[in-house]
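Give me the 3D structure for Merlin.
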Amino acid sequence: MASVLAGKMGLNSLLRKQSRNFNVRICTMESDMEFSCEVKWKGKDLFDLVCRTLGLRETWFFGLRYNIKDTVAWLKMDKKVLDQEVPKEEPITFNFLAKFYPENAEEELVQDITQHLFFLQVKKKILEEEVHCPPEASVLLASYAVHAKYGDYDSSVHKPGFLAQEELLPKRVINLYQMTAEMWEERITACYAEHRGRTRDEAEMEYLKIAQDLDMYGVNYFLIRNKKGTDLLLGVDALGLHIYEPDNRLTPKCSFPWNEIRNISYSDKEFTIKPLDKKTNVFKFNSSRLRVNKLILQLCIGNHDLFMRRRWVDSLEVQQMKAQAREERARKQVERQRLQREKQLREEAERARDELERRLIQLQDEAHMANEALLRSEQTADLLAEKAQIAEEEAKLLAQKAAEAETEMQRIKVTAIRSQEERRLMEQKMLEAEILALKMAEESERRAKEAEQLKQDLQEAKESERRAKNKLLEITSRTVHTVSEQSVLPPDLSLSRENLSFDFKDTDMKRLSMEIEKEKVEYMEKSKHLQEQLNELKTEIESLKLKERETPLDIIHNQNTETVCM
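Predicted structure for Merlin (566 residues):
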């Protein structure tokens, strides 16, 4: 220990001699930053610089963590950076992470940047299996993570395979079921499509609301031993201290809520928890190193302070932040409504345009059909006129033949007197001629009637032609009128900015506040719907589950779920 301190002091002295500044690298969940710091800077000076750079005001949740040997430590705010056991390399690397977790993310997280940093950190812990997550919840969380990245689902954009390169599920969940990557993507996309209308911030908050109900959410675990030398795990979170079996991090053996703890202290490696109820036994345990005891005490003090702070009236700074957040959410809500109305009006205008185009095409088709009908009518009229002319000529020809037959009959009558035989023959011929003349007369009459009928058909054809021409003129006039209507949009479809402006009034803010309170009341109903959705997802994929690949935490989680259901 003395050699380590001497080495650290030698390093600090060397830094001070060589330069008045030192460099640090800050690793956040999204990117890395580098700063040049003065030797005299304390931990708070560096921490405030990082928070200002990120635009973060809810600083009490976060800290700067660094690695030291085989454990981690958090940078102390009241000590100089170089006087602490920070890494010796240049630049010094710190991880900007959430040190304390909220009890209720929706009520406590005010800034969007705070919410986003928590979302990234919790998602990373779930994917790396530092936080156990059941399969059905993993699918639902993945769908909200996809919505936070891609926005509303659009089948024309988000086609099968668009999630192929995304890491969305813990490997434990993927290995637990006989399902291909395409099957997982299909189920995640089905849930993703139901989140339409949410913003990125709303999707991230829904993710945190589901994640905060997981058993290992926000818990820091430490290996300890009780007085009997039995190995145990100590869990520190926003609600209190919990004691676990080493192979079961889901269900604590016993818990000490913060409001039931009177005092926490340690001496060397021994840690003591004194309950508020003096009749309850004092709980003592040992940790492996003094450094771990210091870390446990830091987390206990910070979580206890936040636990009590949540139950007091908010400070003026927090009240101002929440008021600004409410105003910002109200402004975003109004802006979202305005954009929604503009989108709706644009869609209505496009639908009206499409309807006009469809109507124009329909009228053009009708005009084309009317032209074809007129052409057919003209052709039919010409054909009927030609047939009528032919029938008339045939009737004239038959009449001429009948007259010739009558003349022949008179001549036969004159010559019939020559002899009896000739008379008999002539009478027979005359009879045949009369029959033939009668037939010709009947045929002539029939042809005359047929000619008359053809004349009537010709008249009807001409009448049909006249009606077809009138209909064509009517359709043409209607087409011109439709096109003129299309060229001028109706006044109610014009997108005037003046109609979309809004003024914030006190009554509007009160109304929005009441709506926010109403949403809190509806939270329980949404939670019930969320649980039903989780159960439905679990039922759908249960048949594909591989029992032999279940981890001990999966078995414990299933037992806990069955116990709750009973």
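The radius of gyration is 48 Å. Let me know if you want a second pass.
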